[in-house]
Amino acid sequence: MARVTTKYVCNSCGYTSAKPLGRCPNCQAWNSFEEEVPTVTGGKTRSGGAGGYGGISGGKLTPLSTVGRREEPRMSSGISEVDRVLGGGLVAGGVTLIGGEPGIGKSTLLLQVADSVARAGGTVLYVAGEESLEQIRLRADRLGVTADIQLTRDTRAEHIAALMNEHKPALCIVDSIQTVTVEGEGAAGGVAQVRDGTSMLTRAAKETGTATVLVGHVTKDGTVAGPKVMEHIVDTTVFLETVGAFRLLRSVKNRFGQAGELGVFEMRGEGLIAIENPSAAFLAERPVGVPGSVVAATVDGQRPMLLEVQALASKTPYPNARRVVVGLDPRRVDVVLAVLERRLDLTLGGLDIYVNLAGGLKVLDPGLDLAVALAVYSAVVGRALPANVAVFGEVGLAGEVRSTVASQRRAEEAGRAGYKRLIVPPGLPGHTGVKSVEEAVGVVWQTAKA
Question: Is residue 300 within 8 Å of 241, Cβ to Cβ?
């Protein structure tokens, strides 16, 4: 006799339960459980001469050594920073999920990509699930889009897949996946709809060789809304976020390239404009000759950049001195302050210390330790660093300066930006290596006197 199985799924993380729960034990979301469409399972278990597998035999096995090597063909998005994040461009048959807060520029960026692909001769299918076609035309006029992009308001997954199979476009953009519906799977935006819609469109992309981009809503904590299985189905997941006056496009998963790549954009009237030299952009307003300002060579994801570490020390009016850290790891800053007090005899007990990573970025890079140490020391003693000095290095509890990842790339980025003198850990040829924070302080201010 057939048995009906009912289960409840969290629409935030995909956690399943036999009964509805007020709060998800996995992601702690409240009132997030939805009832799944019941599935019918057989009431009898198979038995026979083949044992518990019901006579089913295994499929064919393929040795790894016999599998051919094939590079997936790529297509340029027409925007260099997008190509960087995707690992070289859009992959034929690849599915990319892009998330970001409402109004951050996801639709704007994708319309610019669609225009570039269409002007290069590729057919583009744009599924408008949240806006009218007239709204898209208004945005296209504002952005200067001149290519003829094929638009549709039909958000049924079966129909989108059929359009992909019929027209075989080079690029398909679905804005957004939460508006896509699959017949018989409940309300749009539900767990089953999002999961099955993503699976169906991914299968269509693989069969037709269409590069597909899905726009995903995000929750209040910044993650893509819907079941986590959706992120496992797609090939690439990227997020668009706001940092100060800039937009950052960051990849967190990429089956066709390196995850962690970073693209920098600026929102203007004509759309999102790629920033080819983010180091210059982040250092554009740096004051020269001011104590407490240090240029640090850091790595965000896989991208080397130069950022300004700022420190300010002031006499505290409170019984306990304050420690305020913005954009850096507060625990690492506390360690650096302890090293300065213990190893350099720098008195910080009666001072409020403020440390800031200018530009609005948040970078948890141990290689910023030496920059923090020199910035705080500079702020306390009131002596500015030379204008042409950049630093990087991790600081240990003994006051030693340790090597960091991607040291060569950091040094090359500093050289391209015009910083002639680098204070770095030992072992990097052609640059000033220091073994301790005390030695770094001596080297920097001897250079200043010279």
Answer: no
pTM of the model: 0.83
pLDDT tens, 48-67? 444 556 667 777 888 988 88
- What is the separation of C-alpha 280 from the centre of its chain, rounded to a whole number of angstroms? 21
Q: Rounded to an integer, what distance in angstroms lies between the CA atom of residue 248 and that of residue 242?
A: 6
Boundaries of domain holding 434: 280-449
- DSSP code, position 439: H
3-state secondary structure of 175: strand
Among 403, 392, 399, 384, which residue's Cα sits nearest to residue 447?
A: 384
Q: In 3D, which of 302, 355, 304 has the Cα closest to residue 330? A: 355
221 with 264, same domain: the answer is: yes
Residues 6+ away with beta carbon under 8 Å from 226: 11, 12, 14, 177, 178, 189, 191, 194, 195, 216, 217
Q: Which of 274, 272, 296, 270 is nearest to 283 (CA)?
A: 296
Q: Which of 204, 269, 196 is nearest to 9 (CA)?
A: 196
Which of 253, 276, 299 corresponds to the end of one domain?
276
DSSP one-letter string for 380-415:
HHT-PPPTTEEE--EE-TTSBEE--TTHHHHHHHHH
